[in-house]
Amino acid sequence: MQRLVELAQYTSTAFAQVCDRYGVRRSMGKVGSSYDNALAESFWQGLKRETMHTKLFPTMSQARLEIFAWLTYYNARRRHSALSYLSPMEFEQQHHRTAKLSLAA
């Protein structure tokens, strides 16, 4: 029942209007696609656990700065299981080294 309530929140007209007002583009995966949802759930769970559950922000600007810093870390330095536990930067560097070696061969 809880999942139906959550889904109803994200498909409601009121939620759509708030998103439109703030320029947020909504996106939802296909119904029944657990893999599609798992990636998004993992991302949001990490953001919440690693930034928002440990502190209260005195201002909206401070919250935005903290979230931006976490996103920068997540997208560049945090190790990801989908990348064989390399950070995105390490993965990209390894990819470029491999590409250069195959071009030289």
Automatic annotation (TrEMBL):
Gene3D superfamilies cross-referenced by the UniProt entry: Ribonuclease H-like superfamily/Ribonuclease H (3.30.420.10)
Pfam entry (one): rve_3
InterPro entries: Integrase_cat-core, RNaseH-like_sf, RNaseH_sf, Transposase_IS3/IS150/IS904
Domain Integrase catalytic: 1-96
Stated name of the protein: Transposase
The species this protein was found in: Streptomyces ureilyticus
